[in-house]
Amino acid sequence: KKEKEFSKRFAPAVTTDKHRMEVVANIANADGALEAVNNGAEGVGLLRTEFLFLERDSAPNETEQFQAYKKMVQHLNGLPLIIRTLDIGGDKEVSYLNMPKEDNPFLGIRGIRLCLEYKDLFKEQLRAIYQASKYGPIKIMFPMVGLLEEFREASKIAEEVRVEVGASKIDIGMMIEVPSAVLMAEHFIKEADFFSIGTNDLTQYVLSMDRGHQGLAKKADALHPAVLKMIKMTCDAAKKENKWVGVCGNLAANPLAAKILTGLGVKELSVTASSIANIKSEIRKTSLKECEELALKALSLQTSDEVRSLEE
Ligand code: PEP
Ligand code: MG
């Protein structure tokens, strides 16, 4: 029985018709990397680096960051680590940046926009990431990209830093969590190495509902067909360029959603460590064909309640 539990967690997620889904973890720190490995993660699909920056009086310096990233790479022991560059602003504030007060922080200077305003901070983080990349497989991912020029500027800075620290090239991808990035995905994916869809923010911006609003929690549903259509557009654009798409928002940990996402063409699901075994076993119970039919059905529906009722 123990053996069965073990293989359930650590065996790959393959559908009954032999389609392989990658199941990786969302983490916030080095302990999280260890927890991910112990729970059967095939890597880390999202390191939320902002947790290294929150609740302190100053930003962690390059050495501190390098040591944290290196430790994660070591815990992962050859498994890939996707490091998302600093994603603050919005609801995540840090006192030491003295950010001007905004009327609409979720529509203000956040994510990559903030990094491009605070370039020294951004470069310091990139230096730490590229130094750590000498110790194991790391990929970089930029958050909240909405405009091509943002991706280009951030990539250009990353490339300058890479050359400066003498590191090898690594993949640079971006989060898809802003509607404009979905609509322009065919252009972005010519320049980005991969996409990872942040369904938490994407839902917020597509439905125009604050992701933390108590009164809207039920309506702000990532299983809304409008959000699913956005995910499909993203996958279709990436497929044309032979690039892969992951999902790292909370939606990926929902069993029905995991099947719909598989059917829409998502290749990687990044979830909290505690959900990994469960998502893997959901995938093993189904076939790609069933997932594709489910996805098609979901796309034809009109409300999130209708989508949710697809769960038998
Ligand atoms: C998301 O927006 O779905 C996401 C994964 O990023 P975060 O939750 O950290 O904003
Ligand atoms: Mg987000």
From TrEMBL:
<protein>
    <recommendedName>
        <fullName>phosphoenolpyruvate--protein phosphotransferase</fullName>
    </recommendedName>
</protein>
<comment type="similarity">
    <text>Belongs to the PEP-utilizing enzyme family.</text>
</comment>
